[in-house]
Design goal:
Number of strands: 0
Number of helices: 5
Radius of gyration: 16 Å
Largest sheet: none
Shape: elongated
Structural class: mainly alpha
Strand content: under 5%
Distance between the termini: 46 Å
């Protein structure tokens, strides 16, 4: 099956979204604070639900997003965990990594929105962009306070 630029852009959204979800889950595991663990778990669940809903909308429109590369995701999470362990401020590193992932997701969503989509897919992409923005604000409030 040939994939066009629109398909590639949507695949990048799902790949970036999977990295965000996995990053939050890992951050929750590493967190020693109940408040930040709860925040990371909530952010992961919210993002996963939106991605699942977007995937459902695409399937309804006969668009099949590619599955994320699990080896690439695992390597990224391993590198992130090592960085956090070696950092003098591991909690700050975790938050900064989450922010970077949210920014990347927001960028990939904006890129995908540059293509023509059905109204329901466009609405889900917009919701994902808004969630990323809200998550960035929440991460700012967490600061380095998740250890």
């Amino acid at each position: 099956m040939l994939r066009d630029d629109k398909d590639v852009a949507l695949d990048e959204v799902f790949e970036a979204g999977a990295v965000v979800v996995d990053g939050y889950r890992q951050a929750a595991e590493l967190s020693e604070s109940d408040d930040s663990r709860s925040a990371f778990e909530r952010l992961a669940a919210r993002r996963q639900a939106t991605l699942d809903d977007l995937r459902a909308r695409l399937l309804e429109n006969d668009q099949l997003p590619a599955d994320p590369d699990p080896e690439r995701e695992a390597l990224g999470l391993f590198i992130e965990r090592v960085r956090a362990l070696l950092s003098p401020e591991p909690s700050a590193t975790v938050v900064e990594d989450r922010k970077a992932e949210e920014r990347k997701l927001k960028h990939t969503v904006e890129k995908a929105l540059g293509f023509d989509h059905s109204p329901d897919v466009a609405a889900k992409l917009n919701a994902l962009s808004e969630e990323a923005e809200a998550a960035l604000e929440e991460l700012e409030s967490l600061g380095g306070d998740q250890s």
